[in-house]
Amino acid sequence: MKVAVIVAGYVGLVTGACFAKLGNEVVIIDIDEKKLKAINNGISPIYEEGLDELLRQICLEVSSDYGKVSASETVMLCLGTPSDENGTIVLDYMIEASKRIAEMLRARSGYSVVTVKSTVPPGTTEEVVIPILETSGKKAGQDFGVCMCPEFLREGKAIYDFMHPARVVIGEYDSQSGDVLDRLYQDFKVPIMRTDLKTAEMIKLASNAYLATKISFINEIGNLCKRLGIDVYEVARGMALDDRIGSQFLNAGVGFGGSCLPKDLIMLIAKAKETGYKPAILEGIANFNDAQALRMVELLKKHLTLRGATIGLLGLAFKPGTDDVRDSRAIKIVEALLDEGARVRAYDPLAADNFRRLFPQIEYASKEAVLNSDAILIVTEWAEFKDIDYRRKIVIDGRRIDKAREAKIYEGIGW
Ligand code: UGA
After folding, report:
1. Predicted pLDDT of residue 326
2. pLDDT tens, residue by residue, 134-187
3. For all residues of the chain together, what is the average pLDDT?
4. Is the CB–ligand 1 distance for residue 260 below 6 Å?
5. Identical fold at 2-195 and 224-412?
6. Closest Cα to atom 6, ligand 1: which residue?
7. What is the mean pLDDT of residues 221-244?
8. Is residue 320 within 6 Å of ligand 1 at its C-beta?
9. CB of residue 152 inside a 6 A radius of ligand 1
10. Ligand 1 centre and the CA of 292: distance in Å?
11. For residue 85, is pLDDT > 80?
12. Residue 350 contacts residue 47 (beta carbons within 8 Å)
């Protein structure tokens, strides 16, 4: 199938590259010429496991010319939906891209399906995207199709997740639109759920909010277990034997970060409030997750005076295997440490440069130098932290690194 993808961000690039690998004719549109050049040279502009190799294997067209979209049977909108400082979702990129697609639709006679892949508040495709597309003078469901097909890719495992999805959700304006995407996803041999546009948008947000809930739930149980002298990881092991609960996302720790779980939770809370509904559980989770990060600092204060002390951070990325620091728990922790008058020395195998843009004032050092700090906080569970010599150290562990238990003083956040 002929597929156009807008733009070459994290979701777009992985989606485009994987569809090309599966034998589709793919063009990725982006205005950033530097990015396009890198992709053409088989170098991914983002860090994602296996993406460079994939780019070198496949035949993929990249272009800054929106005109190239016109030959496609489906055009996938994979634009970022960032939030502003108040947590309100900014749809500017979606709106701008929809206008460009409308120009293409105006000039074109054939049928194609515009597919929203970006995570958006329920109602966005119907209330924002379609009206813009129809400024072309063409009608949705008649002259062109519309679908909303959320992605469920984890950073660091995105190619694997794309090729082995648990399910495909197709929100469709009408069945003709859905049929086109259904054909595109036939090779995956997984359940394809077809539904309406708004429901598909909600499935994405509800899935991420549920994962956030599961993590926060086990973190709360962990905080309680610590007081009761019970190991929360043993409790989770026992819970997971029940298929209805399952073992995933039950690793207690310092909480969830990243560009998706925290933002999508806020998006859902904002949407609920817009309808006049107060989402008590969702709000509780967002607040609890922030408090959980600060718990690391509270535990540390039991063992040393922070003012003037040098505190070492092991890990800055929001999870191992990525250089992404968006909403990383390390951000909240560093803010709190600086407020308390501590000096911060940090190490991360991949994410130090990105973190430096947020906190140029802290020291970025080797792992050895960080281990020589007055106390150590483990914030990301990088594999290389599992065989450090922690003896004679003060360690507050936010990610259950068992080897760290040998430390002179050891405290797990919830164990
Ligand atoms: C998440 C979802 O897992 C994907 O399905 C979804 O497609 C994606 O968001 C998205 O919306 O684009 P991702 O943000 O890459 O993927 O990261 P996760 O692997 O879900 O981890 C999120 C956070 O939860 C990390 O900070 C991680 O350390 C934390 N976590 C995860 C825990 O604290 N405990 C766990 O048991 C699992």
Report:
1. 96
2. 999 999 999 999 999 999 999 999 999 999 999 999 999 999 999 999 999 998
3. 96
4. yes
5. yes
6. 152
7. 98
8. no
9. yes
10. 16
11. no
12. yes
Looking at residue 45, the DSSP 8-state letter turns out to be S
Testing ligand 1's pocket by substitution, the residue of 49, 151, 210, 215 carrying the most ligand atoms inside 8 A of its CB is: 215
| 328-339 confidence digits (pLDDT tens) | 999 999 999 999
Helices 197-228 and 232-240 cross at an angle (nearest 10°) of 130
Concatenating the DSSP letter of every residue in 150-171 gives ---PPTTSHHHHHHS-S-EEEE
Q: 171: Cβ below 6 Å to ligand 1? A: no
Task: Domain 224-412: give its CATH architecture.
Answer: 3-Layer(aba) Sandwich (3.40)
What pLDDT is recorded for position 83?
Answer: 85
- Asked whether the beta carbons of 159 and 126 are under 8 A apart, the reply is no
Backbone angles phi, psi at 396, to 5 degrees: -110, 120
Compute the distance from residue 296 Cα to the ligand 1 centre, in Å: 20
Q: What is the pLDDT of residue 258?
A: 97
Is residue 260 part of the annotated active site? The answer reads: yes
Q: How confident is the model at residue 370 (pLDDT cuts 50, 70, 90)?
A: very high
* Residue 262 alpha carbon to ligand 1 centre in Å: 10
Ligand 1 near 93 CB (within 6 A): no
The DSSP 8-state label assigned to residue 205 in this structure reads: H
Residue nearest atom 35 of ligand 1, based on CA coordinates: 249
Q: In one letter, which amino acid is 274? A: E
At 289, phi and psi to the nearest 5?
-65, -35
Opening angle at CA 144, ends 142 and 145, nearest 5: 95
- The CATH architecture to which 2-195 belongs is 3-Layer(aba) Sandwich (3.40)
Task: Give the model's confidence band at 226: pLDDT under 50 very low, under 70 low, under 90 confident, else very high.
Answer: very high
Are 309 and 278 within 8 A, CB to CB? no
Q: Out of 116, 208, 250, 264, give the residue to mutate to test ligand 1, the one with the largest number of ligand atoms within 8 Å of its CB.
A: 208
Q: Are 30 and 7 in contact (CB under 8 A)?
A: yes
Indicate if the pLDDT at residue 193 is higher than 90: yes
**What's the pTM value of the predicted model, to 2 decimals?**
0.96
Extents of the domains making up the chain: 2-195, 224-412
H-helix or E-strand spanning residue 193 = strand 192-195
Per the DSSP assignment, residues forming a β-bridge with 115 are 76, 147
Residue nearest to atom 11 of ligand 1 (CA): 260
Q: Position of tokens 């195998």?
A: 349
Any ligand 1 atom below 6 A from CB of 78 = no
Instruction: Find the mean pLDDT for residues 230-234.
Output: 98
| Distances in whole angstroms, Cα of residue 12 to Cα of each of 76, 114, 245 | 8, 14, 32
- Distance from the alpha carbon of residue 329 to the mean position of ligand 1, in angstroms: 13
